[in-house]
Amino acid sequence: MEKETLFVAVKWEILKSLSKGKKSPLELSQETNSSVSNISQALRFLELSGLIKSERITNRDKGKPRVMYSIAEDTAYLIITTEGFTKKEQVKLTNRKKTLLKIWLFEHANLHRFIEKAYENIEQETPNYEGILLNKNTLPNIELNIIPKEGHYKKIKPITYDYNNITKEITYVENNWETINQNPEYYYAIHDPLLKYKQG
């Protein structure tokens, strides 16, 4: 089965919806404005490919769905086209790989290496965090907001980093989800495994 066909039209809308949590076929039908029969057919293809999984609900309440669908595992489908090297590959993602992909997909490519460096410094200084968000209001300077695990915050000193003859100061701020989600448009989440960021 060619994987590319699974990332188009209603199948792609289903994957985007399931990335936010478990859904029933009826819920997916309502969200995508597609018929339940079309959704059911797309779900079969996606499940056969291993991209999603189904869970049968036992002892369900009256009127509740019998089957719920969710993303099977964290993966990326990469299409690489470079001089001398082309490849299509589906790879499993760790939390670290997901964070790096989010950095590389950030709209300002000239800042990618600086954000990477800022993230690498957090890894070395404090592994006990549940969220890392870039403050877009401070750009082109780099400020990462860290949501620590309860009782685990360690203040990280600013650093100066030079890359391609450009120097930037990288700063770190302790924050919390409540404050972040009051103005979500100010931030770009690079690490949010618990899906607590309400995207702006």
SSE order:
HHHEEEEHHEEEEHE
- Indicate the radius of gyration in whole angstroms: 20 Å
Q: How many domains is the backbone divided into? A: 2
Which CATH class of the largest domain is shown?
Alpha Beta
Strand-residue proportion:
25-35%
Question: In a few lines, what is going on in this structure?
Answer:
The chain is an alpha+beta fold and 200 residues long. Helix content is 30%, strand content 30%.
Explained architecture:
The chain is an alpha+beta fold. The chain has two domains: 3-76, Arc Repressor Mutant, subunit A (Orthogonal Bundle), CATH 1.10.10; 95-191, Beta Polymerase, domain 2 (2-Layer Sandwich), CATH 3.30.460. Helix content is 30%, strand content 30%. The chain contains six helices and nine strands; from the N terminus they run αααββββααββββαβ. It has helices spanning 9-18, 25-32, 36-48, 95-104, 112-125, 177-182, and strands spanning 52-56, 67-71, 75-82, 85-92, 129-135, 142-148, 159-163, 166-174, 187-191. It has a five-stranded mixed sheet. A two-stranded antiparallel ribbon has the order 1-2. Strand 5 (129-135) and strand 6 form a beta hairpin. Helix 2 packs across helix 3. The longest helix is centred in the middle third of the chain and has 14 residues, at 112-125. The protein is globular, with a radius of gyration of 20 Å. The two termini are 36 Å apart.
